[in-house]
Structure formats: structure tokens, C-alpha cells
């Protein structure tokens, strides 16, 4: 998935970041993880 030139930063606790990382697959970006989770809702 190509990224635009514009990005934002969201603040997460280290615990939440680790949970998000654990939901990902090897090599998957946070962007991809979040988009995949959004599609499931």
C-alpha cells in the first residue's frame, strides 16, 4: 500500500503499542494492521 506524503502521529501507551504489534504479521506495518482491524468492524 503506497503511503501519501502526509502522515500523522497518534499517541499510544507502550502496552497498547505492544498489543497492536502482536496483532500484526511478520513485516506488517502499523498502517496495515490498523486498516485490517477497521475493515473487520
What order do the helices and strands follow?
A: HH
Largest sheet: none
DSSP summary: helix tally: 2
The Cα radius of gyration reads: 11 Å
Quick recap:
Helix content is 49%, strand content 0%.
Commentary on this structure:
The protein has 41 residues and is mostly helical. It is 49% helix and 0% strand. The protein is globular. The chain starts with 13 loop residues before the first helix and ends with a helix.
Descriptive key words:
mainly alpha, single chain, 41 residues
Task: Map the helices and strands.
Elements: H1 14-23, H2 30-39
Amino acid at each position: 500500500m503506497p503511503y501519501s506524503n502526509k502522515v500523522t502521529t497518534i499517541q499510544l501507551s507502550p502496552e497498547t503499542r505492544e498489543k497492536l504489534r502482536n496483532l500484526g504479521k511478520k513485516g506488517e506495518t502499523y498502517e496495515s494492521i490498523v486498516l485490517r482491524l477497521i475493515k473487520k468492524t
